[in-house]
Amino acid sequence: MIAKQPAVKRYIVTLSADERERLNALIQKGTCAARQVLKARILLKADASEAGEAWSDGRIAEALDTSIDTIARTRQQLVEDGVEAALTRKHSPNSARKRIFDGAAEAKLIALACSPPPKGRKRWTLTLLETAVVQLNIVDRTSDNTIGRTLKKTLSSLTCRSSGSSRRRPMWPS
Hints:
8 helices, 2 domains, mainly alpha
């Protein structure tokens, strides 16, 4: 059986003294995200400059308990985009969903939730609110889960007046 030969590394990490100092400071600070610390350690171990250790990917993966793919991606990000890009998580603006309730729609939802409930009902339910916001053209579509999250976020300290009573009651029981 033929052993798999390691591929020639396309991305060789060579750090300057300033970059090494910055990565060491980041590791020792102790207030950074674990992902950043891991990537900083990967870069320091992979550094092939005179001051670096130039460890193999397999040795780094074993020492830091991570995958070889993570090490390869970190090397690639450093060589192509620099230290900052290698340390920070890439965020694609297209990956995030757009908010259903923007500021104006959220205000209308809160006003609706604080208004008297429909006839024959003691209070608003999430399903009733879901139907009402679509019927009133506040939003095109939504779910009761989205409404619940929005109200939980905004009504945690807000109370609504019940109809015909001056007593204030919390909108949602804890």
